[in-house]
Design a protein that fits this description.
Order of helices and strands: EHEHEHEHHEHHHHEHHEE
CATH superfamily: NAD(P)-binding Rossmann-like Domain
Distance between the termini: 35 Å
Largest sheet: 8 strands, mixed
Radius of gyration: 18 Å
CATH class: Alpha Beta
Strand content: 5-15%
Number of domains: 1
Helix content: 40-55%
CATH topology: Rossmann fold
C-alpha cells in the first residue's frame, strides 16, 4: 500500500490531486492534510459521496504547514497510527500555498517555502528510504520571476549547490529590504508569490542533494482555477475559462507523473505537461523539454 500525504488537500488542486491518486489504483492511500480538521472531514465526506469504496484508503490529517507545533503533532500522529511500520509513507505532495497573507511577504514565505521545509523535516523520517518520493507543487510564477531578476540573482536561483542556510539568509534579506523595495536586491518587484515559488524550487534542489535516495522534484500544475486565482478573473471582468484557466482536475498531471512514473532526474522542475522545464524562464506546455545541466 502506497500511502501519500497531500498538504492543503481540502480544496482546489490538493483535493483534485487526492482524487487522482485514489483513482490511480487500489494500492494507494491518501492522508488528506488540512489546516482545519472540520474542512478536512468535509472534503473526505464529499469524496466518499461519489466513491464510498475508497473509505478505507482515505483519511484526514490535521496539518497547518505554517505552524511548527501542528506539523510536529501531525508527524507524531502518523507515526503512532502506523506504529508497526518503520516507514509508513511512500510519498509527500507539498501542495499548500498562499498568494499573499495578512503578514505580507513573511506570511508567504512561512507557507510556500518554510511550510515545505517543516513538512519535509518532520515527515522524511517516515518515508520509505529506498523508494520514497516528494513532489513540491510550485508554479510557473517562479521561473517567470527569475527571468526578470538581475544576472547575479538568476545565478543564485539556478545554483545546484545552494545550501538551505544560504536560502534562509536570502529570504531574511528580502524581509529586511527597506520599504519592501526588492529592486535594490536585483529582484523583480511586486511579485511576492513568484519570489516564494522561486525559493521553493531552489529548496527542492537542496532537498534532493541532501536525500539522494529519495526522488524529489517540483512542478507547476498550470493555470488552474482555484480560490487563489479566481479573484483575478473577477477583477478582469472575465470568467476563469475566458482567461484560459483550467479546472483543478487538469492540474494533477505533473504531480502524478512525479509520484508514480520515472522522471529520470532529481531536484528538477517540471511543467504542467510533466516535461522538464528551466528554473529561470517560462517553458510553454508542448515545447521541447529543457536539457540544461
Amino acid at each position: 500500500m502506497r500511502r501519500i500525504l497531500v498538504t492543503g488537500a481540502n480544496k482546489g488542486i490538493g483535493l483534485a490531486t487526492t482524487v487522482a491518486i485514489l483513482e490511480r489504483g487500489a494500492d494507494t492511500t491518501v492522508l488528506l492534510g488540512s489546516r482545519s480538521l472540520e474542512r478536512g472531514r468535509g472534503a473526505v465526506a464529499s469524496i466518499l459521496e461519489d466513491h464510498p469504496e475508497w473509505s478505507s484508503r482515505l483519511m484526514v490529517q490535521e496539518l497547518d504547514v505554517s505552524s511548527d507545533q501542528s506539523v510536529a503533532n501531525a508527524a507524531a500522529e502518523v507515526k503512532t497510527r502506523f506504529q508497526d511500520e518503520a516507514a509508513p509513507l511512500y510519498g509527500i505532495v507539498n501542495n499548500a500555498g498562499i498568494v499573499l497573507g495578512a503578514g505580507g511577504l513573511r506570511s508567504v514565505f512561512e507557507v510556500n517555502v518554510l511550510g515545505i521545509q517543516r513538512v519535509c523535516d518532520a515527515f522524511i523520517p517516515l518515508l520509505d528510504p529506498a523508494h520514497g518520493r516528494i513532489v513540491n507543487i510550485t508554479s510557473a510564477s517562479g521561473p517567470n520571476f527569475v527571468s526578470d531578476c538581475s544576472p547575479e540573482r538568476q545565478a543564485f536561483f539556478t545554483d545546484k549547490n545552494i545550501e538551505w542556510s544560504g536560502l534562509q539568509a536570502f529570504m531574511e534579506e528580502c524581509l529586511q529590504a527597506e520599504n519592501g523595495d526588492l529592486s535594490t536586491m536585483g529582484l523583480a518587484t511586486g511579485q511576492e508569490y513568484g519570489l516564494s515559488k522561486a525559493c521553493a524550487n531552489s529548496y527542492t534542489m537542496v532537498l534532493a542533494r541532501e536525500h539522494p535516495n529519495l526522488l524529489i522534484n517540483a512542478c507547476t500544475p498550470g493555470w488552474i482555477e482555484t480560490d487563489m486565482t479566481r479573484p483575478m478573473a473577477g477583477s478582469s471582468g472575465k470568467s476563469p475559462a475566458e482567461l484560459g484557466m483550467s479546472p483543478p482536475s487538469q492540474g494533477t498531471r505533473s504531480a502524478l507523473f512525479l509520484l508514480f512514473d520515472e522522471p529520470g532526474g532529481n531536484g528538477r522542475y517540471y511543467g504542467s505537461d510533466a516535461i522538464r522545464s528551466p528554473l529561470d524562464r517560462y517553458r510553454a506546455p508542448g515545447s521541447p523539454p529543457y536539457s540544461g545541466g
